């Protein structure tokens, strides 16, 4: 069984859930490969993978999905920035500040969600880089190049000069991970693994 995953899933979610799924289905051999969400959707269409752990479901006939994780975004701030020690942080505080954003080519769900949120709030950060991974974004925040919004799971990555701040982005603005697969995948191991992964997620929520 081949499972693809977005890179940010490795910070916390993927290792734990896959380990639990393997305990429940030890007879299933799992091969992991990293892809962004768009690549996963294309790989499913071409039958190169069995399951995807992506940032967005595939809303097309013949595909199924299940939301595995919903979590808030947090603001990553250079340690010497005033917002690192401010009493509270809001979206309006990001107007005009140097900002590192997910690129549309690599992370369409995050790019569209966050840029849309800023437009709705009439807030215009100064986009200085468009990037393809949370790790790269955090490395540049650490270098003082700008601020960024990243999924809360990314706080597991430690950089010396990055401070994470809670921020209210409004209703529905959150990070999601979805399990996606072809409805016509008749491999019994695929269905067993889907249920094992979903059971592992439910167990972790208790």
From TrEMBL:
Gene3D superfamilies the record matches: Periplasmic binding protein-like II
Tagged with keyword Transcription: yes
Domain of life per record: Bacteria
Keyword Transcription regulation: yes
Cellular component GO terms held in the UniProt record: protein-DNA complex
InterPro entries assigned to the protein according to its UniProt record, in alphabetical order: LysR_subst-bd
Keyword annotations: DNA-binding, Transcription, Transcription regulation
Molecular function per GO: DNA binding; DNA-binding transcription factor activity
Family: Belongs to the LysR transcriptional regulatory family.
Entry protein name: Transcriptional regulator, LysR family
Species name: Pseudomonas syringae pv. spinaceae
């Amino acid at each position: 069984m081949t499972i693809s995953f977005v890179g940010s899933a490795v910070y916390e979610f993927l290792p734990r859930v896959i380990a639990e799924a393997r305990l429940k289905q030890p007879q299933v051999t799992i091969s992991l490969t990293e892809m962004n969400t768009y690549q996963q959707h294309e790989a499913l269409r071409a039958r190169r993978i069995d399951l995807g752990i992506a940032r967005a479901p595939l809303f097309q006939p013949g595909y199924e999905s299940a939301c595995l994780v919903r979590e808030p975004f947090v603001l990553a701030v250079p340690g010497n920035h005033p917002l690192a020690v401010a009493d509270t942080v809001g979206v309006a505080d990001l107007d005009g500040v140097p900002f590192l954003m997910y690129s549309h080519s690599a992370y369409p769900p995050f790019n569209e969600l966050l840029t849309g949120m800023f437009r709705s709030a009439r807030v215009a950060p100064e986009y200085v880089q468009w990037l393809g991974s949370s790790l790269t974004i955090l490395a540049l925040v650490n270098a003082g190049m700008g601020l960024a919004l990243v999924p809360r799971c990314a706080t597991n990555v430690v950089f010396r000069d990055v401070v994470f701040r809670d921020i209210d982005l409004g209703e529905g603005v959150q990070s999601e991970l979805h399990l996606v697969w072809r409805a016509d995948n008749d491999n019994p191991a695929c269905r067993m693994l889907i249920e094992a992964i979903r059971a592992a997620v439910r167990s972790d929520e208790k």
